[in-house]
Amino acid sequence: PHSILAHQIPHGKRERRRRELRERGVLPRREQRLRERLQREPLKPPRPRGTEPGRLDPLRDFYDIWADDNPLERPLAGQDAWFLEQTKKQRVKRPERLRKKPSEAPAVEVIAAGGSYNPAFEDHQVLLLRAHEEELRKQKAEEKLEKQLSLPTGTEAPTPEMRFREECEGLLEESDAEGEETEQPEQPEQRAPPPAPPKEKKTEQQRRREKEARAQAARRSREKAARCRRQELFRLRSIRLQVTRWEAELLRRRQARQAKRRVLDARPRRLGRLKYQDPSLEVQLSDELAESLRVLKPEGSVLRDRFKSLQRRNLIEPRERARFKRKYRLKYVEKRAFREVT
């Protein structure tokens, strides 16, 4: 070759220096730390092929972050609680409301026996009766509201005299009351009663007699109390029976309160502005029942049923579709071209 650079190796002097140090056992700092780490840590079993490392790794250890033996808290064991709280290293206390369900109602309610695709005659009639009563209740509520909002007609319409009497209803009572107050005659002033005569000073004999009477009254009361206590000894059986009845009554009341509380816990609470309303019954008439599953038509909506279930279990508040509200009122403008045509 014409050039001497063709025989030179790139970074030859540096590579020769590295090779000499490696032969003497001197390794780079990075490689030396890596070897120390491999010697210190135990070898893990080989990961099977076809699995991704990370949270999808089947060999990864699982633990509960709320448990007492959480491995994340082992390095913090024995340290000052105030220091851990200030450095945001202490575990946040889990609220008590997350430990219990917001409602005891089941997530999926089993439909009545009459709602089956091939129900018995009695069960289907019971379901039809429930649906009929619900429709009657809705109809009565609508009729009541319509009756309250409707204007009276014919003979029931208010006359001008009735309107005037209604407007003057409170004024006439006030004027009559004022007239009664003015007509009352003036009563003469009541004089104060004369002062009581001063009591005479008691003698020594009177004081001694009063003292003896008080002592006798106290002695009689003590004797009566002792006599009552002696009589109570003979009433131990009846007292025990009264205590047993009282404890049974307390137990009955406690069980009644618990049963009432369970019923209230199963009911939907009012979480927002709207009140929860039960969905309408999904029922088919007798002539609409399918003869087989092939011709069965689905009733209701699974999405609506799950949405109502979340509301019934107090997981979300009852909601309604947002109504369109115009921000600015409409303005009608007569354009120039329209004015020229007209």
Radius of gyration: 47 Å
Count helical runs.
Answer: 10
Helix content: 40-55%
Sheet with the most strands, sense and barrel status: none
Distance between the termini: 101 Å
Q: Which outline best applies?
A: extended
Strand portion: under 5%
Number of strands: 0
Q: Write the element-wise H/E pattern from the N-terminal end onward.
A: HHHHHHHHHH
Estimate the mean pLDDT confidence: 82
Structural class: mainly alpha
| Low-pLDDT windows of residues | none
Family: Belongs to the NOP53 family.
Protein name: Ribosome biogenesis protein NOP53
InterPro entries: Nop53/GLTSCR2
Subcellular location: Nucleus, Nucleolus; Nucleus, Nucleoplasm
Explain briefly what this protein structure is:
It comes from Nothocercus julius. Residues 1-58, 139-224 are annotated as: Disordered. This protein is mainly α.
Give the topology.
Elements lengths: L11 H12 L5 H12 L40 H6 L34 H29 L10 H8 L1 H15 L20 H30 L2 H31 L35 H11 L23 H6 L1
